[in-house]
Automatic annotation (TrEMBL):
Gene3D superfamilies: P-loop containing nucleotide triphosphate hydrolases. GO terms for molecular function: ATP binding; ATP hydrolysis activity. It comes from the Bacteria. Residues 33-193 form the AAA+ ATPase domain. This is MoxR family ATPase. PANTHER family: MAGNESIUM-CHELATASE SUBUNIT CHLD, MOXR FAMILY PROTEIN. CDD domains: AAA.
Length: 288
């Protein structure tokens, strides 16, 4: 393994994030090539966490843009501080000042930075997380494409801002809709799936260090079993870690029907899924 990649993998682990060689390689290349990374995968497999951890190990700011339906330029790029502009305009009018309002109230002083502009202007270059981009509309994707192509934002009243050094950009998607080919082509792509059994054991070990090895394995096996059933909300890593923490806090010695029954709310998040698992029988989980 390339020594830089090996080192990055070790740094991630020290920040309590377990990444395999393929994932680490993409992260390394993203940094070297200055390309955004698009990460897709089911909920709770560590997409958001990875961006936070990358900022932590690079020792730079972490800037997050959470996407949602209707997200627009005024919330992603920049906006004007309307109340402040209004106040200035009123003062000018009341005081009969001679200033030309139209130019004076469109300056830096009245500018509100939103995450994308902030990411361009912060130095050293931060890590920018554009989280759950599939939730935003297609028009927003077009805007994003422009941003990712140039790392530049033009504000007609002020001028253009370009990043001295482009931020490291991580986009995530839970695949609730398909993203455009243009956006995909711009990025290095990672499909982040549920981890293998061994990797999941390793993650829980890192995150819940006090828990006995045998319990970690029982929890991992039970969670993996549940992922094979067609649940509405299959448990992700967040759930297996929560569950492991609960089992530790309750001083459970061994996973059995009763302890699973009492803590199932850590793993399953809908009544329908609980019903489904009861029907299957809890024994399938602790004997799995
Ligand atoms: N590879 C991993 N190493 C360490 N912790 C992980 C890993 N993957 C997931 N986690 C844990 O699972 C939790 C959920 O991950 P998150 O980033 O919110 O998932 P996603 O964004 O993919 O839905 C995180 O808080 C983190 O503690
Ligand atoms: Mg997330």
């Amino acid at each position: 393994m390339n020594e830089h990649i090996h080192r990055l993998q070790e740094e991630l682990r020290r920040a309590r994030y377990v990444a395999d060689q393929a994932l680490t390689t993409v992260l390394y290349l993203a940094g070297r090539l200055g390309r955004p990374v698009l990460m897709e995968g089911p909920a709770g497999v560590g997409k958001t966490e990875l961006a936070k951890v990358m900022a932590q190990i690079r020792g730079v700011d972490f800037i997050r843009l959470q996407c949602y339906e209707g997200l627009d330029a005024a919330h992603a790029l920049y906006d004007w501080d309307y109340p402040k502009q209004l106040l200035t305009a009123r003062t000018v009018i009341e005081g009969h000042e001679q200033r030309k309002i139209s130019t004076d109230i469109y300056t830096e002083e009245y500018l509100i930075e939103r995450p994308l502009l902030k990411a361009l202007r912060s130095q050293p270059a931060p890590v920018l997380l554009i989280d759950e981009v599939d939730r935003a509309d297609e028009e927003f994707e077009a805007l994003l494409l422009e941003f990712l192509a140039e790392f530049q934002i033009t504000i007609p009243e002020i001028g253009s801002f370009r990043a001295q050094q482009p931020p490291m950009v991580i986009l995530t998607s839970n695949r609730t809709r398909d993203l455009s080919d243009a956006l995909r082509r711009r990025c290095l792509y990672v499909w982040l799936d549920y981890p293998s059994l061994e990797r999941e054991v390793e993650i829980i070990r890192l995150r819940v260090p006090g828990l006995a090895e045998e319990l970690i394995r029982q929890i991992t096996r039970a969670v993996r079993q549940m992922r094979q059933w067609s649940l509405l909300k299959p448990p992700g890593m967040a759930e297996s870690i929560d569950w492991a923490q609960a089992i530790e806090k309750l001083d459970v010695r061994e996973l059995d029907e009763e302890s699973i029954f009492l803590t199932l709310g850590c793993v399953l998040k809908t009544q329908e899924d609980m019903e489904f698992v009861y029907q299957k029988g809890l024994a399938l989980l602790w004997k799995s």
